[in-house]
Write a structure and sequence with these properties.
- The protein has 8 helices and 17 strands.
- With 382 residues, the protein is an alpha+beta fold.
- The protein has an 8-stranded mixed beta sheet, with helices on both faces.
- The two termini are 16 Å apart.
């Protein structure tokens, strides 16, 4: 093991420090500064900052020419109030690291300590801390940043902790592992009227009543195969909270979800056709907008083979688990530039779920994740 007991104590404490100071997607300036300061102490050859926003890339160069291996973690937290009683609970009201990104950062910091003490024999190892994972905008911003061309990888790895799996067990497979998804925001515009004379206005109420079940019926789930699709209505608002006004405005928010990107184009088209048909029939104005757009996440066979070799060498039990999974992950875009693979590291069968208000990353996973990644790096770079 390349980490000492003192390292583990310090890494766990640093993880808890990050937990106390969560920042939302696109607002991670303080977290990025903390990462830069902690990793600077490991003596990297270069630190790239401002990558796709607040992203940070930490570069460790080998002694000989060779490939570039990148490992990625996330900077951002969630807009959820934490309810735990841990001493390191969030110090920021309404925000918390309830997805484990603080722990993922600690795993990469552990790699930084190891790489600082012993450089790769060849090539480059790059630790990249990505902004804005939770809203799906960060990976695109990173790979489209001109600075990314300077650190272009030949292989990319990532992990995500996964409650519900035994602590320390890994799920890994080739092919799609996380779904494509996007949020659709539908705005319907009519005309307000006095509540006693609704006939003088144009209400969106009936259109909303039609659209909510009809949208859901476009994709009702089922097996996670190439034709899987799901639509989940997540929010709706009609008019204003007043008894004297018949509404003239409404919004519906829904999440479109498919296993693969190609299927998303079809689902999006059907959703738009449905909305336009209902709105036109009711004489309503309509606007459709998208946000939180996630590509599907697909593991390349050659990258999976490297991770399996590392897992076996480190004695970490692994299988396919329940992959692929319905949630989305903003890692798929890295696979456009190099073979990429993500594995899922069990956080415990009874552990609170991701995004739950009482979730906290298990510090025991720092050492396991770091060992697997370091073994993969050494196997590829020496």
């Amino acid at each position: 093991m390349f980490l000492t007991n003192q390292d583990m104590v310090e890494l766990a404490e640093w993880r808890r420090k990050l937990h106390r100071m969560p920042e939302l997607s696109g607002q991670e300036a303080g977290t990025a500064s903390e990462v830069r300061e902690f990793l600077q102490a490991t003596g990297p050859n270069r630190i790239v900052t401002g990558l796709g926003g607040h992203g940070v890339a930490v570069v460790y160069e080998g002694y000989e020419a060779g490939p570039t291996v990148m490992v990625r973690a996330e900077l951002d937290a969630l807009p959820i109030e934490e309810i735990s009683a841990f001493p390191h609970r969030s110090a920021v009201p309404g925000k918390a690291h309830l997805c484990g990104h603080d722990g993922h950062m600690a795993i990469l910091a552990a790699l930084g300590r190891g790489l600082g003490r012993q450089r790769p024999q060849r090539g480059r190892a790059i630790l990249i801390f990505q902004p804005a994972e939770e809203d799906g905008s960060g990976a695109a911003a990173v790979v489209n940043d001109p600075k990314f061309r300077e650190i272009m990888p030949d292989m990319v790895f990532a992990l995500h902790n996964l409650p519900g799996m035994p602590l320390g067990r890994v799920a890994l497979t080739e092919g799609p592992v996380a779904c494509a998804s996007r949020g659709i925001r539908i705005t319907l515009t009519g005309k307000t009227a006095h509540a006693s004379m609704p006939e003088f206005g144009l209400s969106p109420v009936n259109a909303v009543a039609q659209l909510m079940p009809a949208l859901t019926a476009l994709g009702s789930g089922g097996p996670l195969d190439d034709i899987f699709s799901m639509v989940t209505v997540t929010h709706a608002r009609i008019g204003e909270p007043a008894f004297g006004v018949a509404p003239g405005h409404a919004e519906i928010w829904a999440t479109l979800r498919t296993l693969v990107d190609a299927r998303m184009d079809d689902l999006r088209s059907r959703a738009e056709d449905l909305v336009l048909k209902v709105a036109q029939s009711a004489g309503l104005g309509v606007d459709i907008a998208y946000r939180d757009v996630f590509r599907h996440c697909e593991n390349a066979p050659e990258a999976v083979a490297c991770l399996r070799q590392a897992l076996d060498a480190e004695g970490v039990k692994h299988d396919r688990g329940d992959l692929p999974m319905r949630p989305s992950e903003d890692f798929g875009r890295f696979g456009d530039h190099a073979p990429a693979a993500m594995f899922f590291l069990g956080a415990g069968e009874g552990h609170p779920s991701l995004h739950n208000p009482d979730y906290d990353f298990p510090d025991d996973l720092i050492e396991i994740g770091a060992r697997v990644f370091m073994r993969a790096i050494r196997d590829l770079l020496g």
